[in-house]
Amino acid sequence: MKILLLGPQGSGKGTQAKRIAEEYGLAHVSTGDMLRAEAASESDLGRRVGEIMSRGDLVPDDLMVDIIRNRLDRDDARDGFILDGFPRTDAQAEALEAMLAETGRDLDVVFELQVGDETSVERMRGRAQTEGRADDTEEAMRRRLELYHRETAPLSQRYLARGILVGIHGERTVDEVFAEIQRTLDELESRSVA
Ligand code: ADP
Fold first, then answer.
1. Is the pLDDT of residue 160 over 90?
2. Confidence (pTM)
3. How far is ligand 1, taken at its centre, from the CA of residue 187, in Å?
């Protein structure tokens, strides 16, 4: 199963992606986690990426596409993955489609976790106190949400048009959201077996 998660900051993407990956045995591909690991390594690339992230800006598309291409080529992602944090722009979405097509693959379903800006900001602030990420300043949080609305949210139209978008009301408990995702995935699985 090839799954994509869309949703603003604090919508619960990372939490749900982890649970889905565990339950269905899929590779969890989180670009945020991958970039934070790179930044922590203090390589030249890591320093560059770290600076961009701490401002709340987006890392350049060509670099992101290279990172994802390498990741999806690995054995554990061949047959199934859950993408969390990619694509975030039109160019990334186009590149993803092209690279999956090259290997005869395609997305099965796109979940959009829907939460309002107030919830998003509230959850980011809450997390900032416990995690203390470099991009958890008020300014970077505002920037991240602004870029989400401008660059990423419009991507849902593309998946809606392809009939693979499933909207999920995200202002509920983790268990409730997961149960709804599971219903869709179990239905998809039983359809492909039949
Ligand atoms: P959040 O969605 O809460 O802002 P993430 O962990 O998903 O956090 O991403 C953190 C940062 O990593 C982003 O603000 C951005 O700088 C960078 N990033 C992650 N994924 C991408 C991507 N697909 N394209 C560009 N930048 C990205």
1. yes
2. 0.95
3. 31
